[in-house]
Write a structure and sequence with these properties.
The structure is a homodimer of 188-residue chains. Helix content of chain A is 73%, strand content 0%. Chain A has 9 helices and no strands. In chain A, helix 4 packs antiparallel against helix 5 and helix 5 runs antiparallel to helix 9. Chain A binds a DNA duplex (30 and 30 nucleotides) through helix 3.
Chain lengths: 188, 188
Amino acid sequence: MTQRQRRVRDRTERGQRIVAAARELAEAEGWDAVTTRRLAGLIEYSQPVLYSHFPGGKDAIMAAAALEGFAELAAALAAARDGGIAGIAGAYIEFADAKPALYDAMFTLASELRFARDDTPEVMKANFAELLAVIEPVAGRQDAGPLTEVFWSTLHGLVTLDRGHRLSPAHRDERLALVVARFGTRAD
Amino acid sequence: MTQRQRRVRDRTERGQRIVAAARELAEAEGWDAVTTRRLAGLIEYSQPVLYSHFPGGKDAIMAAAALEGFAELAAALAAARDGGIAGIAGAYIEFADAKPALYDAMFTLASELRFARDDTPEVMKANFAELLAVIEPVAGRQDAGPLTEVFWSTLHGLVTLDRGHRLSPAHRDERLALVVARFGTRAD
DNA sequence: GTGGTTTTCTAGCATCGCTAGGATTGCTAG
DNA sequence: CTAGCAATCCTAGCGATGCTAGAAAACCAC
């Protein structure tokens, strides 16, 4: 039955190639350029193969990419945990800046995935936990959970507004410093 | 030449009907449901008529709706100016909550419109000015401009993350209170 | 080899945004 | 009143999208 094992291994490999190709293409030309036909061409198979891996179609592929993104973001945040507020804020923005299409898939698109619920994937909770770990020391008497949500919202807002050319490019560093100033101190 | 005047008046009226129909349909069923065919049916004309009003097609119609949205948001913020940080933050979130599709058109979609540039429409600058007016008193020695951008990012992040079901519904009010706590005090 | 299962591809559907070209209407001049 | 011009509008169609049914091919056990 080792052949059967090889077949399932090939299958999962191909599934990963689909997501990898989608991410690559999205990062290069945006998610609009990620069509099922181009994706099928990239992995050198026909269109219906995509649906055997992801019955949900294109949305499911994007959701799979988003999940990968959450795992990578969690890793990036964990690596910056020692940097405190400034470190984690910088890491967050840097991640969104380095992989804009992936970030879009994680937050702007892929509305199926939702936080703050029982069926929320663990990878997604991990991101919140990383932010929470840094905010907790400065929460004081305030509930750290909601404060983390506000902190997270600030980072996410900075990313998305900046991406939409809504913010002044000259003040990027200054904004980051202000975030640290506003969230880095205890306010009981 | 009064007939000519009536004709141009009818034209502009029809243009507004197009945007109004688009907004109504988007608010009811989302922007994906706003197709050029359905839009043409709603105004009881054929598709190409849309392009005589908006050569840019669907994107231009959404941009027109977004501009209306910026004007309405600026008015809502101006009305809440006396409420200070808490008042304007509440008004902002309330606006986004009452007209979610319009808010999406203003920020998530419609990437043509950009802030912080010379050709930025006045209505868009007005929104920033309203936020700036409230932030300025608490800026202290800090530059009020970037601080307003951070404040704005927080509000925008709260709106978008909440819309994506990323935040706990139970803590809505608490988050707003925390925003006021973090941005309502001087931090020189 | 042969039959049956699994996998893959070809072909097509409905819908999308958008546009060219002809038809229809309205205005003007003789 | 009518002929001709100009503006307006609609029918029909193009290319591309996500997705799917049914035929074709490959694979495996016997």
